[in-house]
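Morning run. Coffee first, then this:
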Amino acid sequence: MEVVAVRRGAVRSVVVAGLLVLGVSGVSGVSGEAGAAARSGPGSGPGSGPEADVAYHGRVSLSQGRLRVWVVPQNEGPAALPNATLRVRLSAELADRQELAQGCARAGLREVVCETGALPLHGRGRHIGLLLELKEPVSEVVVRIDTWWNGGASDRDLSNNQHAVLALDTGDSYAF
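And here it is:
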């Protein structure tokens, strides 16, 4: 349990440090000059980073308290990205112990974040497979997948990188 607290604290520290560098205000008590930029999203201001259209495709499956998540990140351009981070949020709590794929870390009681690896122009990142144990068996779970960090790139089409999937405890796969 202590390892989870350390990771969660480390992730929060990195996020807060990044916000301080960017001068963002109004986010979890962090002060700075660019509060409006935080509300409109990273990379949305003039002169910001490159533009990229990140998309996630995959499937989820729930069976007896075990959730399988398979995601393929994709970039439709117009610029390549050296890396991005996707976030998987659940409506149910994760078990205390998790064996996560390389490049993934637990970010809370119900969250996991994973790096995508390089996203070339009109290409795919690394395939991400997660087998997540839930704290208690449930009849259904809502899985939300979105971009947690994209290197400061702007993305005008959020419809293909923000997904919510209801997975029933049937073992069936639900695609997104």
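The two ends are 32 Å apart (CA to CA). Good start to the day.
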